[in-house]
Amino acid sequence: MVNQVPRGDGSWQSFKSDSSGASTSGGDSSKDSSRCSTPVLEADRSDRLRDKMRRRTESGDRWFSLEFFPPRTASGAVNLISRFDRMGSGGPLFIDITWHPAGDPGSDKETSSMMIASTAVNYCGLESVLHLTCCNQTTHKITGYLEKAKRLGLKNIMALRGDPVGADWEEEEEGFNYAIDLVKHIRSEFDDYFDICVAGYPTGHPEAGSYEEDLQHLKEKVDAGADFVITQLFFRADTFLKFLDDCRAIGITCPILPGIFPIQGYQSLRQLVKLSKLEVPEEITKVIEPIKDNDAAIRNYGIQQAVQMCRVLLDSGKVSGLHFYTLNREVATMEVLRQLGLWTEDPRRPLPWAVSAHPKRRVEDVRPIFWASRPKSYIYRTQDWDEFPNGRWGNSSSPAFGELNDYYLFYLKSKSTKDALLQMWGDELMNEQSVYEVFTCYITAQPNHRGHKVMCLPWNDEPLAPETNLLKEELEKVNRRGVLTINSQPNINGKPSTDPIVGWGPAGGYVFQKAYLEFFTSSENVTALLQVLKKYEPRVNYHIVNVHGQNRTNAHDMQPNAVTWGIFPGREIVQPTVVDPVSFMYWKDEAFALWIEQWGKLYEEESPSRMIIKYIHDNYFLVNLVDNDFPLDSCLWQVIDDMFELLDTPPDPLSDGTASE
């Protein structure tokens, strides 16, 4: 099969896929042929994890990482991905995902360790470390898991022996019995591809002959090829600091991250202590026991205990990074990080869209604007591209976007439950105006007539971005009248890249935007709109299409229009967002399908509500408008006003419909 994919230089090239799904490019690899004009520090996007640690440590920065475990249910997977997005906003250097042999961890199930880690990297843009254990694994099986991890874009492995299935460890034929065996195997079979983490035990491994013997085992793992160490949890800062000094004394020079466990509940503490075979210090049990039935009190104590311990570690001058065992909860860990000053929600973005952490996408710096609110969908639909556009979006006749039929995938599903969606979008729709109300309530953040706030739409699974709030008044006005907006941006003329609302890229630059508006509206409105748009050419470019592909445009049918760009010291002009006419036709299919897949299917097959959604799907048009004159106030609102004025003006009974001379 021959497809068209973007070359690294912005043009497009053909490649052939063999039956195995592998691709062979007809040109140079992206590594060799691409020029990178990405406006972020290239090191932050492409450096190995060990290099990021080294750079942060040498510069005196303090940083943190987070551990999660795979959920048991599909809904739990959806919730965990939402948590990744929220906790990722605080700036962790990486996250790690544990490996549970009983949970089919290497499978394609949405609850598997492999899929959760892959989703974090590819769809949430988080540097991720995948745990891998020797327990019940053959060498062949482990190699298969590592090959799959590499294929999915995972570059970091935490090599562990793992807990025995029964009371005692049983040797595995054709397998490994110690973490060092796994480290050696990774280095032997995959050379230096993976960064490898191993576990350290500040009080010694419970099965080791002595503390000193366990330190030697750790040194052997590092000497075999491990790049950094994360420790088991502990309860006193001096326990870790002594361990760190002892490691340095025997020649372990790699980063050693303290494992921090904020106490969040009595039962979770007991369970974790049982698994790790640790003793809780008496000064902690004295506080915990009297309040063991008060979860809020225990959590508050746990936060303060963790903050105090972390401050001692950081103030020692020997610790730069902290690793948190979250137990898949966010409140306690986020509060600890806030009190330590490590939680840094920088509103500025490296690019105007969410960046994937997959290594082969590291040069990508141009995307169509249509998927601005659905970045995970865009990544999914372009996952098989052999190379990604860099520097500019080239002319294209067929970008070969993948189909999107898998709306059920846990990283594409709405974060809200069906009941919550019905509360927001209506248990029963009466007419098209009922739909207009949903859009209007989303824009205004006001409760609907049933008292529920509309926090998302099928095309936007998050509350409004701060940038969109700049347009709130105008957006509310047009949505009330059936111009159902799903994407917009204000015009920006040379705002500093550090601007907290519209800024992106490194400091010292300036960002620019053309005003953009994308919406669904009725065929009657489109008829009037097309008449109005004639007097705004060539200032306004438009694309108007229905579900059947009937398309009206005044733009070049192959040429993209840059609608966001930035100028930064010592770099080429960067244009990361475009309106591309070919891509718009692929987006059109998805945008219309969301009416049915995520909204219509909430209702019974032949119900009036479902029929209303289907009518809109079948009869409305999808429109995008670009105001090219970005230094001036946007004219797009006047375009819409003129459309409504034309619709509201009664026809002249004396007119024969011809224009006067």
Please characterize this protein's 3D structure:
This protein is α/β, with parallel strands linked by helices and about 650 residues long. The protein has 2 domains: about 50-165 and about 170-340, TIM Barrel (Alpha-Beta Barrel); about 365-650, no CATH class. About 35% of the residues lie in helices and about 15% in strands. The protein contains 22 helices and 21 strands. The strands form 4 sheets. An 8-stranded parallel beta barrel has the order 4-5-6-7-8-9-10-11, surrounded by 5 helices. The chain has a 5-stranded mixed beta sheet with strand order 12-20-19-15-14. The chain has a 5-stranded antiparallel beta sheet with strand order 13-16-21-17-18, sandwiched between helices. Helix 9 (about 235-250) packs parallel to helix 12 and helix 12 (about 295-315) runs parallel beside helix 13 (about 330-340). The longest helix has 21 residues, at about 295-315. About 45% of the residues are buried. Keywords: Allosteric enzyme, FAD, Flavoprotein, NADP, Oxidoreductase, Phosphoprotein. This is Methylenetetrahydrofolate reductase (NADPH). Catalyzes the conversion of 5,10-methylenetetrahydrofolate to 5-methyltetrahydrofolate, a cosubstrate for homocysteine remethylation to methionine. Represents a key regulatory connection between the folate and methionine cycles. It catalyses: (6S)-5-methyl-5,6,7,8-tetrahydrofolate + NADP(+) = (6R)-5,10-methylene-5,6,7,8-tetrahydrofolate + NADPH + H(+).
